[in-house]
User: What shape does this take?
Amino acid sequence: MGHNQPLSRRIGFYLEKLEWLGPILVRGLGLLSSAEALEQSFSFSQVMVLQTLHRAGPMKMTELARFLGLSKPNATGLVDRLVRRSLVRRKRSDEDRRVIFVALTPGGRRAAERLAVTSREGLTALMKRIPAKDLDAFIATLEQLALGLAESAGPVPRSPVPRR
Assistant: This one.
């Protein structure tokens, strides 16, 4: 699609591309976070909980739910299953007993670290398919997309990686 086409035609083309790419990307990201390599059965959502807690440290249950875009009952169910597997623990706040913090156990930290290695291996292989000259633009575009999608869910945590 050439840039000399009217913007309205280009937008339609891009929307069709995004609609086609969306499910492929979601499935691919799920496979990258697959725990089959760990010989454990984690759902994609459980992987997201483990990875989020690994990066961010202990979080309030409500913050975790909001960050992952889940309802509090759904996040509670995910955490319940991870608690039963001794990968996550809950702790009530000393200041406000209504507030519950969620944190990784040592076993959860080890599982999250193994998942991170598996994910990085998959992402590295993916990035090798993108010409080096295009990687900065690719990452910047993904970041814009992710932040735009997350905007409606509330505050987005700052990236732990500084801008270039």
